[in-house]
Amino acid sequence: MLTYTHNIKVRYAETDAMQRAHHSNFLIWFEAARIDLLDQIGLPYQEIESKGYYIPVLSAQVEYLKPVSFNDQLSIQVMLKEKPKVRFSFQYQISLNNELMAKGSTEHVFINKQNNVTRIPDFFTEKIARCWD
Amino acid sequence: MLTYTHNIKVRYAETDAMQRAHHSNFLIWFEAARIDLLDQIGLPYQEIESKGYYIPVLSAQVEYLKPVSFNDQLSIQVMLKEKPKVRFSFQYQISLNNELMAKGSTEHVFINKQNNVTRIPDFFTEKIARCWD
Amino acid sequence: MLTYTHNIKVRYAETDAMQRAHHSNFLIWFEAARIDLLDQIGLPYQEIESKGYYIPVLSAQVEYLKPVSFNDQLSIQVMLKEKPKVRFSFQYQISLNNELMAKGSTEHVFINKQNNVTRIPDFFTEKIARCWD
Amino acid sequence: MLTYTHNIKVRYAETDAMQRAHHSNFLIWFEAARIDLLDQIGLPYQEIESKGYYIPVLSAQVEYLKPVSFNDQLSIQVMLKEKPKVRFSFQYQISLNNELMAKGSTEHVFINKQNNVTRIPDFFTEKIARCWD
Questions:
Q1: Burial environment of residue D116 by CB neighbours within 10 A (0 to 12, 13 to 18, 19 or more)
Q2: What is the pLDDT along chain D (133 residues), one digit of tens a residue?
Q3: Least enclosed by CB within 10 Å: which of B4, C125, D58, D102?
Q4: How far is B19 from chain D (nearest CA, A)?
């Protein structure tokens, strides 16, 4: 499994009139953690794009367990539990002081510049394999 | 069932470097459609809040079927298929020229100002019942 | 002068914990109005981009006169008061029921795919001239 | 003068179809830096709100000097150059590897829960005075 924990402070712009972080931001935080995981294992997303690939989101789901507030210091843990085949997914857990606030998952594929689904490029598979615990 | 179709044009600010609408916006559009549905049946969300209630999102899920681009004129259809009990859900379909681009659902409860889950207030249940087809 | 009025309802996602529309959204609404103005005169921004040009924002300024709230139905008036030379600007007025809530302006240039400032392409100048009052 | 430097990495969600950070995000980053400055001098914004005050933005202006890209590691420097009277302003400089990418300013007042402008509360003035260099 690969995992990474991305830390954020909830921005004022991310709050809503209910005095919570708006629920759409959780997808943005998931993505930030996912991109940091890729950075950390030497696969920066901008290099993946510069090689002609994108990794769009096919589906996403979030469970909001506790309300998250302005300036909360959240840990966004992202986990890749299975080595990517064509279709692969990340799991997420958002915590505040070790209390679980939300969890979720996203599913992905690789596509090329023509918007067609492709097999996962070798440079990606190999790097993942090398870093796998 | 109750249903409403909210129309939007994809804003430039909603696009990302992949030249698509960023996937987090779909939750924002779902919400805009949901609020319009409530407006239309005479239950504007600001009145629900002014009576001391909130309707937070407990969970959300989205399937992204086709890429959505800048300035696309999207129809966001929201459906309430079962009369709300304590926990209730909305379904969504996003279309471009009658082609289905995405679908999803959100789950909700009513909470009060103290952040406690409450039974659904009568004014809400009655209005829903009166508008039900 | 060219002018266009874009109408929006303030989305819940656009509010913040101060129970107002967050001030960053005003730039997004200005942009939506600007793009609608271009659409209306037959210069859709996606065509400008497909011809190899972008019109980035060089500077922006906003004055927030009155607080704007959830579900407010705002009119975003955009004005192009002088025919574009190399550097040109749009003015904006945001109103709620004819009361002025905010105003602002943005400055722009044309750039090409290589990120260099270019003179304004003829197809743009000519269309502007034809629509000018 | 009081100053603080807030560091961010540009999120994918903050990019737009022009492959840059969308210009509205700069106001959000200014705000995050401003809030960190207040945190650092012992005036966390959530405490200011819990005492019944808000510090809305009266005006904002941004100059975009260089395009900012996905995953850029930006330094957002915020400066309070004059001790707050009723109306006060912050200045900002956004840098990437010591190159100035953008600059701007925001103007503010204190308001109370009734949305009325108030004099700046003593706890605020005193804390600012104590930290002033």
A1: exposed
A2: 999 999 999 999 999 999 999 999 999 999 999 999 999 999 999 999 999 999 999 999 999 999 999 999 999 999 999 999 899 999 999 999 999 999 999 999 999 999 999 999 999 999 999 999 7
A3: C125
A4: 5
Q: How far apart are CA D22 and CA C27, in angstroms?
A: 10
For β-strands B99-108 and B88-96, DSSP reports them as antiparallel
Report the alpha-carbon distance of residue D117 to residue D114 in Å, rounded: 9
Q: A52-67, pLDDT tens digit by residue?
A: 999 999 999 999 999 9
Rounded Cα–Cα distance for residues C2 and C37 (Å): 8
Specify which residues D108 forms β-bridges with. D57, D88
Considering only CB atoms, D31 lies closest to which of A13, A28, A45, namely A13
Provide the strand spans (E) within B44-126. 53-54, 57-64, 73-80, 88-96, 99-108, 110-112, 117-118
Q: Quick check: C45 and B12 CB within 8 A?
A: yes
**DSSP assigned state of B15:** B
On the 0-12 / 13-18 / 19+ scale of CB atoms within 10 A, D54 is buried
- Closest chain C CA to residue D25: C24
Which among C40, C76, C123, A14 has a CA at the least distance from the CA of B71?
A: C40
Q: Do B12 and D22 touch (CB under 8 A)?
A: yes
Q: Which of B12, B27, B35 sits opposite C35 (nearest CB)?
A: B12
> DSSP H helical segments within C9-121, as ranges?
25-40, 45-50
The CATH number assigned to the domain holding D87 equals 3.10.129.10
| CA distances for C83 relative to A102, C90, C126, C127, angstroms | 52, 10, 10, 11
Domains contained in chain A, number: 1
The residue of chain A with its CA nearest to that of D10 is A32
Nearest CA in chain B to D18: B17
How far is residue D56's CA from residue D49's CA, in Å, rounded to a whole number? 11
Q: The whole model's pTM is what?
A: 0.97
H helices, E strands: number in chain C: 3, 8
Q: From the list B24, B58, B63, which residue is nearest A24 (CB)?
A: B24
Q: Which residues of A touch D13 (CB under 8 A)?
A: 27-28, 31-32
Length of chain C: 133
Distance from C-alpha of D2 to C-alpha of D10, rounded to nearest angstrom: 25
**Residue C127: enclosing H or E segment and its boundaries?**
helix C122-131
Contacts of D27 (CB under 8 A, 6+ apart): A13, C23, C24, C27, D60, D62, D104, D106
Question: Residues B41, B127: contact at Cβ < 8 Å?
Answer: yes
Contact B26, B104 (CB under 8 A): yes
How far apart are the CA of C11 and the nearest CA of chain A, in angstroms?
10
CB atoms near residue A84 (< 10 Å)? 17
Instruction: Give the rounded distance of the alpha carbon of A81 from its chain centre.
Output: 13
Structural domain harbouring B50: 2-131
